[in-house]
Design goal:
273 residues, alpha/beta, Rossmann fold, 2 domains, five-stranded mixed sheet, 8 helices, 12 strands, 32% strand, globular
């Protein structure tokens, strides 16, 4: 995908996360959230039962047909769709994330595996040679693209939407007046506890996320520290871009309750007639 030039992992962490990393000294093994070291940690925190996932899956149920899951990663949307009987094309640029998806598919029943096509490609410029009634893109993925990358994404989506097809995507905005940086202890599906930091000043054009195990090895071994900075795209900017690209917003659904730090809005769009 087309992104802005990324700094070295860990260098753009917020003040709290930076102090935590400094405290680890030479033990800190810095990486991004989607690379070989970071992808398993990121996947461990993936949830398959949250408002965004439920809303996107409900939207797909409105009509039959195959689904194109963009920035599919390790299968947060792909796996439940397959379990529900859908044919899914899962597209992602990260070989590491797709490796995790393939590992999950290897454990699935053969009929479920047979309905999934895994494609390593750039979501801002792809050509699959077919059209889909449903195209999905989850929250943070759009924020990984710069303006040129997003324009390419919209062109690619339009080229792959079937007549009357729907492109569903979610937008993430800062939704409260809380602190610039938060720190939380969270537990992954494996039972592993993590420290999760987010540095997101009000009005900022980007936010940084840092993830590391909450209980480093007692033997003094290395500690994997994942940090990434992603852009922030306001809902008004996003809707203007979609309209300019030839995509009409049909519905807007706020998926998070008032007062939440993360304000997630689901947009359902179609090609402008």
């Amino acid at each position: 995908m087309t992104t802005a030039t990324a700094p070295a992992p860990g260098t753009d962490a917020g003040p709290l996360a930076a102090r935590r990393i400094a405290g680890l000294g030479a033990r800190a093994r810095l990486c991004g959230l989607y690379d070989t070291l970071g992808a398993p940690l990121y996947q461990d925190l993936a949830t398959y039962d949250d408002p965004e996932t439920r809303a996107l899956l409900a939207g797909v149920r409105t009509a039959p047909g195959p689904v194109l899951d963009l920035a599919a990663g390790a299968g947060r949307f792909t796996l439940p769709l397959l379990a529900g009987g859908r044919e899914v094309t899962a597209l992602d640029l990260s070989a590491d994330m797709l490796g995790l998806l393939r590992a999950e598919l290897a454990k699935a029943p053969a009929p479920m595996r047979s309905r999934c096509t895994v494609v390593q490609a750039d979501m801002s410029a792809f050509d699959l040679g077919r059209r889909f009634p449903h195209v999905l893109l989850g929250t943070t993925s759009l924020s990984l693209l710069d303006a040129d990358g997003r324009a390419g994404l919209y062109r690619s989506v339009l080229a792959h939407l079937a007549d009357g097809g729907r492109f569903q995507l979610t937008a993430l905005e800062r939704g409260d007046d809380g602190p610039d940086e938060t720190a939380a202890r969270v537990t992954g599906t494996s039972g592993t506890a993590y420290e999760l930091y987010e540095h997101w000043p009000a009005g900022a054009t980007s936010r940084s996320v840092t993830l590391l195990p909450a209980d480093p090895p007692a033997d003094g071994g290395p500690v994997t520290v994942c940090t990434d900075r992603v852009g922030v795209i306001g809902l008004d900017v996003l809707e203007a871009e979609l309209a300019a690209a030839g995509l009409t917003v049909l519905t807007r659904s706020l998926l998070t309750p008032p007062g939440e730090r993360h304000r997630v809005t689901l947009l359902t769009t179609e090609a402008t007639r």
